[in-house]
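Researcher: Structure for this, please.
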Amino acid sequence: MNPGSSGKPKSDSSSLIQSGLHDFDGAAAFLGTSPRHVRRLWQERRLAGIKVGRAVRFSEADLLAFVERHRVEAVR
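Model: Predicted structure, token format:
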């Protein structure tokens, strides 16, 4: 532990993004939608998430998989 450190883990969103996990706000920014929409996708089990206690986090791999599953190819 660093001297002067309170011993509490960082709870800011920058540490979550560096670890590859996003909260509802971070996942919404990643997907370009609202946090409410991400919450609804998670509640409907259309978007995979990781539940740790009361917190829900989304991995970048799960978010990218969601995007790929919903990709619509152009018709030529």
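Researcher: Any notable elements?
Model: The chain has a mean pLDDT of 85. The chain has one domain: 14-69.
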